[in-house]
């Protein structure tokens, strides 16, 4: 059965036990996977890495909208982005963040890498998703 692992830690646990040997993951899980399994590497796809986004949202009708915007501004600030990248939390999106090559090696970082990302055609993907899941379950769900 197809399962979506929303937390990096769940995927890391499966990797570390050998239950999963190949995974599609965002860059923020790489350091944890490598800590669990020293031979874990990031596969370079010939078509390029796929761009995925973490988002912060304010639902319509929310209370404290001004406070929510303050929080968003805080987490997008250069200082927080710098610390998160240095501490292995997430790749920075602020172009003001400066990382050493060692710090940057686990992240999608810098204009060259970001510009090389492949964009997903979500309409096309969603059209095929049901067939993919059915085929996956047919092959692996037994």
Tally of helical segments:
7
Number of strands: 0
Query: Quick one: biggest sheet?
Result: none
Order of helices and strands: HHHHHHH
Helix content: 40-55%
Structural class: mainly alpha
Through-space gap between termini: 9 Å
Enumerate the spans where pLDDT stays under 50 for 5 or more consecutive residues: 1-6
Query: What is the overall shape?
Result: globular
Nearest-integer average pLDDT: 86
User: How much β-strand is present in the residues?
Assistant: under 5%
Radius of gyration: 18 Å
Describe the protein.
It is a single chain. With 142 residues, the chain is an all-alpha fold. 46% of the residues lie in helices and 0% in strands. It has seven helices and no strands. It has helices at residues 8-17, 30-36, 65-75, 78-86, 101-104, 111-116, 122-140. 10% of the residues are buried. The model is unreliable at 1-6 (pLDDT under 50).
């Amino acid at each position: 059965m197809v399962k979506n692992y929303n937390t990096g830690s769940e995927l890391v646990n499966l990797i570390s036990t050998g239950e999963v040997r190949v995974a599609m993951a965002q860059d923020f899980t790489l350091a944890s996977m490598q800590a669990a399994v020293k031979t874990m590497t990031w596969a370079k796809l010939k078509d390029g890495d796929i761009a995925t986004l973490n988002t912060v949202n304010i639902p319509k009708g929310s209370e404290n909208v001004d406070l929510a915007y303050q929080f968003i501004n805080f987490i997008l600030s250069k200082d927080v982005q710098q610390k998160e990248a240095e501490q292995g939390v997430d790749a920075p999106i602020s172009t003001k963040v400066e990382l050493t090559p060692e710090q940057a090696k686990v992240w999608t970082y810098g204009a060259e890498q970001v510009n090389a990302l492949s964009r997903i055609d979500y309409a096309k993907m969603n059209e095929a998703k049901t067939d993919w899941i059915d085929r996956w379950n047919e092959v692996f769900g037994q």
